[in-house]
Amino acid sequence: MAQAPRAAQPIDPVLVVIPTYNERENLTPILERLHKALPDVNALVVDDGSPDGTGELADKLAADNPHIHVLHRTEKAGLGAAYVAGFRWGLERDYATIVEMDADGSHAPEDLPRMLDALSDADLVLGSRYVPGGSVVNWPKRRELLSRAANLYSRLALGMKIREYTAGFRAYRRQVLEKLELDEIASRGYCFQIDLAWRTARAGFDVVEVPITFTEREFGESKMSGSVIREAMLRVGVWGLQHRWTQLRRLFRR
Ligand SMILES: Nc1nc2c(ncn2[C@@H]2O[C@H](COP(=O)(O)OP(=O)(O)OP(=O)(O)O)[C@@H](O)[C@H]2O)c(=O)[nH]1
Ligand SMILES: [Mg+2]
């Protein structure tokens, strides 16, 4: 059956997937802010057995609030795997929109209504620091440089008109996640974000960027590491080469 045109597809109900690993101090405030900004959305906390008790705290919050749900996973398996599990949970239910948001306060829930508005004209909305109006607050220069370099590298390798491939605050229409082969996604760290933006754009979906203010976490520790960076450089390089190779072959076949 042919799909209904995008304008006719609903945006509600919305599920916000929040992966957590040792985010005990951050979880309650971020959920409160989310439900203050958008009282009707549902949140799914995907916890990888955090040793600091984030999972137990999430259970307590969920017991008191029907808009909060928890998915427990047994071991720390990376951001990508946590999101894929969260997406599946949402797709098995009737959510029309699935949002990715960090638990550490870097993504302001107050920016989400604007992102959801933009979804009426898009399939994927990226909350972007690197479009006019976007900004970063309290980020060490070194960290911003790394992020900007990752995005420049992704743009050069993949050649799409996306300013922030690494955006971790984003909203998908369910049709996108239904179409992408979630089983095939091997990216574990934050290269997962680049991977999904790239797959979504290549599948012909409309990707729109909305400016956001990104604020460095106040509590807890970043999970960014050398291995996360190496994974992103290697995978993005391989996708870029495959893409250029396909373009070249098409050119010579003409
Ligand atoms: N379930 C789960 N969540 C994770 C894992 N790694 C990171 N997270 C969560 O994913 C979100 C983003 O992770 P951060 O450590 O803040 O990484 P980042 O935002 O890329 O890096 P910073 O900018 O340095 O904070 C946070 O909510 C983390 O708790 C993981 O392996 N499993
Ligand atoms: Mg963070």
TrEMBL record:
Ordered alphabetically, the record's keywords are:
Glycosyltransferase, Transferase
All copies of the Glycosyltransferase 2-like domain together span 16-180
The record's listing under SUPFAM superfamilies reads: Nucleotide-diphospho-sugar transferases
List the InterPro entries hit by this protein, alphabetically. DPM1-like, Glyco_trans_2-like, Nucleotide-diphossugar_trans
Q: Mind giving the lineage of the organism this protein is from?
A: Bacteria, Bacillati, Actinomycetota, Actinomycetes, Pseudonocardiales
Q: What family is it from?
A: Belongs to the glycosyltransferase 2 family.
Query: What is the protein name given in its UniProt record?
Result: Polyprenol monophosphomannose synthase
Q: Which domain of life is it from?
A: Bacteria
